[in-house]
Amino acid sequence: MDIIANSPDHTAAESAIVAADLVGTLSGDGPFTVFAPTDAAFAAIDSATLAGVLADIPTLTAILTYHVHSGNVPYSDLTDQMMLPTLNGQEVIISLTDSGANVNNAHITVADLVADNGVVHVIDAVLLPPTPDSIDEVVSNWSVMPNPANEVIVLNGVAPEAHIAMIDLTGRTVREFAQGTTMLSVGDMPRGTYLLTVTEGRNIQTKKVMVQ
Question: Would the pLDDT of 138 be above 70?
Answer without folding.
Answer: no
